[in-house]
Specification:
With 141 residues, the chain is mainly alpha-helical. It has one domain. It is 75% helix and 0% strand. The protein contains three helices and no strands. The mean pLDDT is 82.
């Protein structure tokens, strides 16, 4: 279908530039969300391994002949992974909040909290719970 210039609404250069700038802000925000989700993927893996490695070694001590498995080493490895996940998620959340505030200030428009940020907060809560349960040898719920 061919369009004539008369069929398109005439827009000023300022309007076109404003539209492009708004889209650039949105692309930047989406890129920041993808970065946060990358942190979340890595942290989720760390939480999973950090929580399951000590649990696996606790189970292995019940197997005949493996009663002397060094469970403390596994506990420290798991704890290290969990602490790393907490640090990564904390950095990701701070970075995302700082970016959203900055882009809101520059654009003059508020950007809502992203689902990636909320998800990162929830995974951070799980990572903190897992870290505390390993530190105090609490059994999972």
């Amino acid at each position: 279908m061919d369009f004539d210039d008369e069929d398109l609404p005439h827009r000023s250069n300022a309007q076109l530039a404003s539209d492009r700038t708004d889209l650039a802000f949105e692309r930047s925000r989406l890129a920041s969300d993808r970065t946060t989700m990358g942190y979340m993927r890595t942290a989720t893996s760390l939480v999973g391994f950090g929580f399951s490695i000590p649990a696996l070694f606790r189970i292995l001590t019940d197997v005949p002949g493996l009663e002397e498995v060094p469970i403390e080493h596994a506990r420290f490895v798991g704890l290290f992974m969990l602490i790393l996940a907490v640090i990564m998620l904390s950095v990701a959340i701070i970075q995302q909040i700082t970016f959203l505030k900055r882009i809101s200030d520059i654009s003059g428009k508020p950007f809502p909290i992203s689902p990636a940020l909320v998800s990162a907060g929830l995974i951070l809560a799980v990572a903190i719970y897992a870290t505390i349960s390993i530190l105090w040898n609490v059994e999972p719920l």
